[in-house]
Amino acid sequence: MPIQIITTVAEMQQRAQAARATGQRIVFVPTMGCLHQGHLSLLEAGRKQGDLLVLSIFVNPTQFGQGEDFEDYPRDLRCDSELAEVVGVDIVFAPTVAEMYPQGYATFVDVEGITKGLCGASRPGHFRGVTTVVGKLFNIIQPQLALFGNKDFQQLTVIRRMTIDLNIPVEIIGMPIFREPDGLAMSSRNVYLSAEQRQQALVLSQSIVEALRMVAAGQTDSSVIVAALENRISSKSAARIDYIKICHRLSLEEQVKVDEDSVLLLALFFGKTRLIDNSYLKRAE
Ligand code: PAF
Question: Concatenated DSSP letters for 40-89?
Fold first, then answer.
């Protein structure tokens, strides 16, 4: 069957209901498009785990703050659909903004607590937009399984919280971060980087390697590790630090001492481009 592109909520919902009625297992990968190898790895994994593989492509305005890159966010539905077809996607759901947020739209999903720090502190309202659109997409696509990248660690934690709290019957899988050969985590926003910024952005993955080395050598004091990373970043790059934190993987609260539940989370600006990365410090991804 050739790939199908659906743009209306009604048609997508009908298609999902029909698939469910015949016992098909729906696997879902939500994206904002501009697909890269990281997205394709989610789709390849998803292909093996269900009957109907649905990819959503929707640049969601409610998760962008004022002055952020909503207008400039790269969009290329034709190229994305071709890539999706190669990895065996059955349906691309690509609604318009008016279709998702019609006149009179007034309902938002807001996960409290864990959305306030880290990216939530520098992007107020961001996670409210993410959980609102992901909640809507779950209702429209009705998947049994949804795959997300671990790169957006806080997003994944927040979405897990939402599905538990709202009793949404979907299994959430976090997939390993997909990296360029030189270590840079794949992100649709990497296209914004100049050649020099692209080189400097390696400081993100290098910082993770440095932190892992310190922990392997017995360092458990989070403030010592964070200070070493701050020094490395300011001496080796022109990056502006948004945050470098060691947090508990579930509560996202900062930890004084590194333990089995610790995750290192970094957000750095290279010019106007903000990139994030993360790693567990004492467990495998
Ligand atoms: O991670 C993303 O691309 C987006 O935040 C998501 C989950 C597709 C919601 O718009």
Answer: HHHHHHHHTT-SEEEEEE---GGGPPTTSSTTTS---HHHHHHHHHHTT-
Alpha helices in 90-152 (DSSP H): 97-100, 119-122, 126-141
Beta carbons of 12 and 141 less than 8 angstroms apart? yes
Residue 114 alpha carbon to ligand 1 centre in Å = 17
Domain 188-280 listed as CATH 3.30.1300.10: yes
208 to 173, 185, 239, 243, 254: CA distances (angstroms): 23, 11, 15, 14, 17
Q: Is 173 helix (H, G, I), strand (E, B) or coil?
A: strand
User: How much is the pLDDT for 274?
Assistant: 97
- Give the number of the atom of ligand 1 that is nearest the alpha carbon of residue 159: 7
| CATH, domain range 4-175 | 3.40.50.620
Residues sharing a CB contact under 8 Å with residue 256, sequence separation 6 or more, in sequence order: 221, 222, 223
Predicted confidence at residue 56, as pLDDT, reads 98
* Tens-place pLDDT, residues 137-176: 999 999 999 999 999 999 999 999 999 999 999 999 999 9
Whose tokens are 């592109």? That residue is 5
Q: Give nearest CA residue, ligand 1 atom 1.
A: 31
User: If you ran DSSP here, which 8-state letter would residue 194 be given?
Assistant: -
Predicted local distance difference test score (pLDDT) of residue 284: 86
Q: Are strands 171-175 and 240-248 parallel, antiparallel or unpaired?
A: unpaired
Which atom of ligand 1 is nearest the CA belonging to 188?
3
Low-confidence ranges of the chain (pLDDT < 50): none
Residues with CB under 6 A from ligand 1: 30-32, 60, 63, 130, 133-134, 152, 155
